[in-house]
From TrEMBL, chain A:
Organism annotation: Cellulosimicrobium composti
UniProt topology in membrane: Multi-pass membrane protein
Span of domain ABC transmembrane type-2: 25-252
Keywords for this protein: Antibiotic resistance, Cell membrane, Membrane, Transmembrane, Transmembrane helix, Transport
Short name of any one Pfam family annotated for the protein: ABC2_membrane
Transmembrane segments: 27-49, 61-82, 103-131, 137-161, 173-191, 227-249
Any GO BP annotation: response to antibiotic
Protein name per its UniProtKB record: Transport permease protein
Domain of life from the UniProt record: Bacteria
Automatic annotation (TrEMBL), chain B:
Family: Belongs to the ABC transporter superfamily.
Chain segments annotated as coiled-coil in the UniProt record: none
Its membrane topology: Peripheral membrane protein
Region (Disordered): 256-279
SUPFAM superfamilies membership: P-loop containing nucleoside triphosphate hydrolases
Biological process annotations from GO: response to antibiotic
Boundaries of every ABC transporter domain copy: 11-239
Protein name: ATP-binding cassette domain-containing protein
Subcellular location: Cell membrane
Organism whose genome encodes this protein: Cellulosimicrobium composti
Alphabetized InterPro entries for the sequence: AAA+_ATPase, ABC_transporter-like_ATP-bd, ABC_transporter-like_CS, ABC_transporter_ATP-binding, P-loop_NTPase
Amino acid sequence: MTTHALTDTRVLAGRSLRHVLRSPDTIITTAVTPVALMLLFVYVLGGAIDTGTGGSYVDYLLPGILLITVASGVAYTSYRLFLDLQGGIVERFRSMPVARSSVLWAHVLTSLVANLVSVTLVVGVGLLLGFRTDASVGAWLAALGIIVLFTLALTWLAVVAGLSARTVDGASAFSYPLIFLPFVSSAFVPTDTMPTAVAWFAENQPVTAVVDTLRALFAGQPVGSDIWLALAWLVGILVVAQAWAVATYRRRMR
Amino acid sequence: MSVDLSLEPALRVRGIEKSFGDLRVLRGVDLDVAPGSIVALLGSNGAGKTTLVRILSTLVAPDAGTASVHGHDVVDQPGRVRESISLTGQFAAVDEVLTGRENLVLVARLRHLRDPERVADDLLARFSLTDAGARRAGTYSGGMRRRLDIAMSLVGNPPVVFLDEPTTGLDPQSRIEVWATVRELARGGTTVLLTTQYLDEAEQLADRIAILHRGTIVQDGTLAELKALLPPATVEYVEKQPSLEDVFLALVGDAGDTDGTPVTPTTTEAAQPAGEELR
Ligand SMILES: Nc1ncnc2c1ncn2[C@@H]1O[C@H](COP(=O)(O)OP(=O)(O)OP(=O)(O)O)[C@@H](O)[C@H]1O
Ligand SMILES: [Mg+2]
């Protein structure tokens, strides 16, 4: 059975990518909110924000905006998974000699591709708004790696949500807190302007570590220990979320 | 394959029990299905037909008892079982975003067949879906969707086919088409276990009929054997009326291969004007 796992995953991922291609609005919608936020912060609020870095506010803002893009994009994964479960197509796959893990991995890979497209769109708009980077090729690859890890970690959480949801709305509602997290981080304003308790939370939650790492990479500056902290968070969430998703899948399919 | 193996039942069910919470749905189901035969599982709503089919197709585990498909246990060797079965569930499980043809190609790929495109085209033709093949399955009528659903189950010619209420919601013509398909399958050596609410469907199709009631198979036999359970028939003279199905088929044109009573001339004439209006 496992010999077919790769083929099956590829075939099933092809199927859900086709779903994405046939409703490209999901990719656009994923990009629209972050772009609107970016416009709002750059042109309305940004003038009043002192980041203390001297660089342009777009440069400061973009990493957080990219994370928001992914956080809202993964909601479509729970949505698609939920619909698959409801429509009975998962039962069909499960009664066939299809590797069990393939059903979930196909959705995860699809999420990765769709989110990277949305992220690319948002970066494109960022460039139009004046985003500039001194990143080397290596730094770009490192940033890409971080975004891929972030997407995978959140996608496995989305899989848990899709597997546990009872309604379509419930399937995507889980992403609201994820979208909110960047606001209580260093994504938009430096944490030292926040009240002590909030600042403590902001400094110790994963988004700040990831945002600071991405910002340093884009600015072509040394990343210091931030990158290890970010990686530890992301790999940790990824491992826990994946185990949780697989356990939920097994339980649900009993 | 040795002679002994071919005598072994394709499906063997022994003492299967399944409860959902306090609800004891299956309470010791025994059933044998011979290779190449059609067995109809009859039972009222909630009798547990779907539950039994889901156990046989490895989707849920039984609480007790054993079931095997071609000698492979559904709990211990689900992988082997899945290679020899296909399930058409009670509710059509097609991908609505994909076209009919893409649905079939998808299943053919997942069954690791050599030429998925050709397999898809053959099945589209066989189920009169060639013209609709390039359309999204979401735009299909209920009957077309069901036909696609059944076609997807036949990809790769699995030797054992489960059909859970295959004709519920179909118009009489599509029903007859599905019946013809089922007969054709059995002629080709496929074992078919189907559930149904329709007694005439069981009568028309099945070699054996098993009645599931209060969690067990209360009767299992050929139609003649089941009829023999009732007191001997008394002879009464009854005027033979065409059934509503005969009338419907006469009106919409294709009586097809119903081997029922021919429609009487008076009925056809009386029905003709209405037929004109329908067109
Ligand atoms: N997953 C489940 N959880 C709880 N109860 C269930 C579950 N699946 C089935 N049941 C219950 O088990 C009983 C048998 O259901 P099943 O679907 O097997 O009946 P059926 O014979 O197929 O009925 P129908 O003719 O209506 O399709 C029903 O009372 C149903 O509510
Ligand atoms: Mg049922």
